[in-house]
Amino acid sequence: MATKTATKTNRNAKAASKATTTKATKKNATVAKPAAKEPKPADKKMSQIEAAVAVLAKAKQPMNCKSMVEAMQVEGLWASPGGATPDATLYASILREIKTKAKDARFKKVDRGLFALTGKK
Questions:
Q1: How many Å apart are CA 19 and CA 14, to the nearest integer?
Q2: Maximum pairwise Cα distance, the chain
Q3: Angle at alpha carbon of residue 75, lines to 64 and 40, rounded to 5°
Q4: What Cα–Cα distance (Å) separates residue 76 from each residue in 8, 101, 105, 112?
Q5: What is the CATH number of domain 48-117?
Q6: I need a labelling partner for 118 at 20 to 30 A (CA). Which of 2, 33, 64, 73 fits?
């Protein structure tokens, strides 16, 4: 019976020493604080969906994604970083915003492939 107690004591001592060493390393570790959000600089590039909002606001009529991408590039608001189908990417982004934000979405689907602004920005 003395052997069982001694074995349990040794196990407990090992577990306790492991716990203290683990806690010590965690305690001494430096945790990085999240950086404060900085305001966006005015010269920062506009995203594709933000450029689509600007193009639709200027056009004041429904447009398809291909014509929106062309207008963005002509006006210098946004340029494709080399993607093969930027109009398909824009289409997917607009549909995702309509689906996720529902009533708060900036876009509305007017007809097949045509989008307009809802008036919310």
A1: 9
A2: 89
A3: 100
A4: 74, 28, 25, 27
A5: 1.10.10
A6: 73
Q: Could you count the other beta carbons within 10 Å of the beta carbon of residue 102?
A: 8
CA distance 56 to 62: 7
Q: Name the residue type at position 65.
A: C
pLDDT in tens, the chain (121 residues): 555 555 556 666 666 665 555 555 555 666 666 666 665 555 678 999 999 999 999 999 999 999 999 999 999 999 999 999 999 999 999 999 999 999 999 999 999 999 999 987 6
For residue 108 the two structure tokens come to 């509305």
Beta-carbon contacts of 53 under 8 Å, excluding residues fewer than 6 positions away, are: 106, 107, 117, 121
Rounded to the nearest angstrom, the gap between the alpha carbon of residue 93 and the centroid of all alpha carbons in its chain is: 12
* The two three-digit tokens of residue 42, written as one number: 């005015």
The pTM of the full predicted model, rounded to 2 decimals, is: 0.63
Q: Quick one: tokens of 3?
A: 């052997």
Q: How do the domains of the chain map onto residue ranges?
A: 1-28, 48-117
